[in-house]
Each structure stands twice: as structure tokens, then as C-alpha cells.
Amino acid sequence: xxxxxxxxxxxxxxxxxxxxxxxxxxxxxxxxxxxxxxxxxxxxxxxxxxxxxxxxxxxxxxxxxxxxxxxxxxxxxxxxxxxxxxxxxxxxxxxxxxxxxxxxxxxxxxxxxxxxxxxxxxxxxxxxxxxxxxxxxxxxxxxxxxxxxxxxxxxxxxxxxxxxxxxxxxxxxxxxxxxxxxxxxxxxxxxxxxxxxxxxxxxx
Length: 204
What we know:
The protein is α+β, with helices and mostly antiparallel strands. Helix content is 49%, strand content 14%. The protein has helices at residues 24-31, 38-60, 89-104, 117-137, 142-172, and strands at residues 73-77, 80-84, 179-188, 194-202. Strands 1-2-4-3 form a four-stranded antiparallel sheet, covered by helices on one side. The longest helix is centred in the last third of the chain and has 31 residues, at 142-172.
């Protein structure tokens, strides 16, 4: 069980952050009640973490029909999350409470997933930023520019996994201390795609 908030071990990102507190989001809402949409943002971060943890648990549950979490996709909203892929409803109903319990009891690494769209966004932003920097700093010759773009891409590729984990851990997810699972159903999303939906509500 993980009880520290080290971002990632074995490299220069290995430093300590404050441990998640059960009342942190509730306290923030009480301090900033005038900020529009704050509760929805905080809820979305918690739902996102629960989505990731559920995918991890589904991949590790013995005796389920879903042995590989790589076949699943997800989409979080402030009302709950969708899961896409070949998935048994009974397995999902078993996995979600386990995921919620493990997250809130200290297994915070379950909130981070390597296939999260956050990583893709971080990679694109980092590549664009480094490429622009190389373009501005290097001579305008085509060879120099090509070399600069290659170096920018290689650097972004190296940095993205760790920066993506940090972005997930401290920006796009939060431990779901305030979530209560209301319902888990087979349904379709707003585009008509078949999915399962885990509906949650906020508990103060």
C-alpha cells in the first residue's frame, strides 16, 4: 500500500509532495464558493482517478472475463465515467467498489494510468514548445532546423512519460474522497457508442 506521494522513483523527478488529505477538496470549496464551476472541476478530477483505478482493478481481478485493461477505454465526466470495450457488467460492478476503497485507503498510484489522454496532451504540448524553441534559437538553414526538430522530438519523447504522470497525479486526477457510486449500467454515450456508465455523486 502506498502512503507517500513521491512523483516517480529512480530519476530526477523523485521528490516528495504533500500527501492527499480527505478534506482537501471540501475545504477548497468552502474557501472559494464564489468560483463558478469549481465543484464540477473537482468532481471531474476525482472521477478521473476512479476511472483509472477501475481499469487497473479490472485488469487484475482473478476469474474475470476482462484479463487485459489495454483493451478498455474511458471518458470521465462530472457525473461519472464511461468505459468502452468488451466488458462484463458483473465484473465492473465488482471492480468499482474495490477501486474506490483502494484509492481512498492509500493506493494513490492507481489514480495514474500510462494510457491516459493526459500523457498525449503533455507530449503534444512539450513537442510543440521545444520545436518552437529550436526554430527560434537555431540558424534558419534547413539542416539546422531539421536537426533541431529531431532533438526537440527526442527530448519530448524522453520527458513525456514522467511529466505525464506528474500532470495526472497533481492536475487531472484527485483521490475520490468525496464520491459515492450511485449506479453502474450498460448504456451508450452521447455519440451512441455502446459503453458502461458508472454514475457517482458528490458527498460533502
